[in-house]
Design a protein that fits this description.
The complex is a heterodimer of chains A (about 210) and B (about 290). Chain A has about 210 residues and is an all-alpha fold. Chain A contains 10 helices and no strands.
Chain lengths: ~210, ~290
């Protein structure tokens, strides 16, 4: 316990990095994921097929390999001036975007076909249909699965420990050098536990708030 | 569903779609062109950066890495299923002193990153047990406790989704709770959840690569060994592409199996209207996002 209190600033610095990693890559993943989902349901094959391909690729590629490619590979193609943090955000964002896309798409599929048909019957086009009728309903039913995706993202930020980002998990290896691995392990686990359970509690609250009877 | 979103295109819409298709194609090709020209300009396609593929020693190392990956996957997959079944039985138990600890274990392990779970035996064994645990078992431990907990929830969801009449009928003919679970509920639950279970096994396979973070000598680790050699021009991107392709092929094969089974059991439902499969939750319980 003393180890945790003595190194509170270390834990807090790690926690902050984990939180900023999560927030930045979540923003990237949400924007990109919704765009991908729109591509995947669009009548334009030249957008639908690449989007589907990208999603499949990300779902079958280990996050560690993507990290390896982006974090170590970026300097090789003369992309300089980006920090490890930025590249980690890019890897996490691209990876999670595919899962966000699938969540949004399955949300679109839960909206009864009659809704889309009625929208078309009153003369709405594809984008109006999606924007005014389908997405407002789809996004609500998507809160639960989206929450698990974002929680998975939060846990996934720990992969960055292997790629020179000093986030929460890295506290363990830094304290390990001083022979304090065990309290550090439990401290880090406790931090994640509090963070993740708080997140899932908050999302549950949100889910209940936006719930609607159909 | 997507076809419900838009009308059968008329002449104007067809023209617009054609224009959008061309624009989309141009956009996608442009992105691909920028990426490829970037790779080309920085010499990623130079022969010396790909030469390593022909070296027998390197092929042998990569093969060894692949076998290590598959070994970790096989052990972790087996143990996760065993642990998952155990925890699911625990969570479904009628005894509170069994149910509560199982629930706590599932909640805690699902809330922790797999990397942290791998760190416990990796860094904790030395001070706690005064021995070090082989990396394979650190990886297997992390994968097993996490995926076992997730699988427990999948099994439980499957059991809960079996129509109530099944359990009532089982009690009516005098089966005990354990017999009911073993003979009546679990076979149906596992069958219904098989696609989801296999999707979770894809996660196990993908997550073996997390062992890279603790220096486990799996496929990506062996690949990284090649990138240290300056005679190949430190081929990080070629290695990432090759290693990534191997993972994508392996995971796709496993995913394909899941969709096959899903489609097969789907048609079985149609052939047997009103059968047991009615109570099965549909697939929007979705492949759980990986860790």
């Amino acid at each position: 316990m003393n180890v945790i209190i003595d190194n509170a600033d270390l834990f807090w610095a790690g926690m902050k990095t984990t939180l900023t990693l999560t927030a930045a890559s979540a923003a990237l993943a949400l924007v990109l994921g919704v765009l991908l989902a729109a591509c995947r349901v669009s009548p334009v094959p030249s957008l639908r097929i690449p989007a589907a391909g990208f999603v499949n690729l990300m779902q079958n590629l280990p996050l560690t390999v993507l990290f390896f490619l982006i974090v170590f590979g970026a300097p090789k193609v003369d992309i300089r001036g980006t920090s490890y943090w930025t590249r980690a955000v890019l890897a996490l964002g691209l990876y999670t975007a595919a899962f966000v896309c699938e969540v949004v798409r399955s949300g679109i599929n839960t909206v009864p076909a009659g809704q889309a048909e009625a929208a078309r019957a009153i003369g709405l086009g594809f984008t109006q249909n999606l924007r005014l009728v389908i997405l407002p309903q789809a996004l609500r039913s998507v809160v639960g699965p989206m929450a698990s995706t974002l929680i998975a993202l939060t846990k996934n930020t720990s992969v960055a420990v292997g790629f020179s980002v000093l986030e929460l998990t890295s506290v363990v290896s830094r304290l390990n050098e001083g022979g304090k691995a065990v309290p550090a392990l439990f401290g880090v686990a406790l931090c994640y536990l509090v963070l993740i359970l708080a997140m899932s509690w908050a999302f549950e609250l949100l889910e209940r708030r936006v719930a609607f009877a159909r | 569903m997507s076809s419900v979103l838009f009308d059968e295109p008329g002449p104007a819409a067809k023209r617009r779609n054609a224009v959008l298709t061309v624009l989309g194609a141009v956009l996608v090709l442009f992105i691909a062109f920028v990426a490829v020209s970037r790779l080309h300009a920085s010499g990623q396609f130079e022969g010396r950066r790909w030469e390593w593929i022909e070296y027998e020693g390197i092929q042998r190392n990569l093969l060894r890495g692949l076998i290590t990956t598959l070994k970790a996957f096989a052990i972790a997959a087996f143990l996760s299923i065993v642990l998952g079944l155990g925890l699911a039985v625990g969570r479904l138990s009628t005894r509170a002193w069994v149910r509560w600890p199982s629930t706590a274990v599932v909640t805690v392990f699902r809330a922790l990153p797999v990397v942290v779970l791998m760190y416990f035996p990796y860094l904790g064994a030395k001070p706690l047990l005064d021995t070090s645990i082989p990396l394979l078992w650190c990886v297997v431990f992390g994968l097993t406790v996490y995926n076992g907990s997730v699988l427990a929830e999948i099994f439980r969801a499957g059991v809960v989704a079996v129509p109530k009449g099944q359990q009532e009928a089982a009690s009516a003919i005098g089966l005990t709770r354990a017999q009911t679970l073993r003979i009546v509920l679990f076979p149906q639950a596992v069958r219904a959840m098989l696609p989801t279970i296999i999707s979770q096994l894809v996660v196990v396979l993908k997550d073996t690569a997390l062992g890279f973070v603790i220096g486990f000598q799996e496929l990506l680790f062996e690949g990284q060994g090649i990138t240290d050699e300056s005679r190949f021009g430190r081929p990080i991107i070629p290695v990432a592409i090759v290693v990534g392709a191997v993972y994508v092929v392996l995971c796709s094969l496993l995913s394909l199996l899941a969709t096959r089974i899903e489609r097969r059991s789907g048609s079985a439902v149609r052939r047997r209207p009103g059968g047991f499969a009615n109570g099965i939750p549909d697939a929007d319980a979705a492949p759980l996002p990986s860790a």
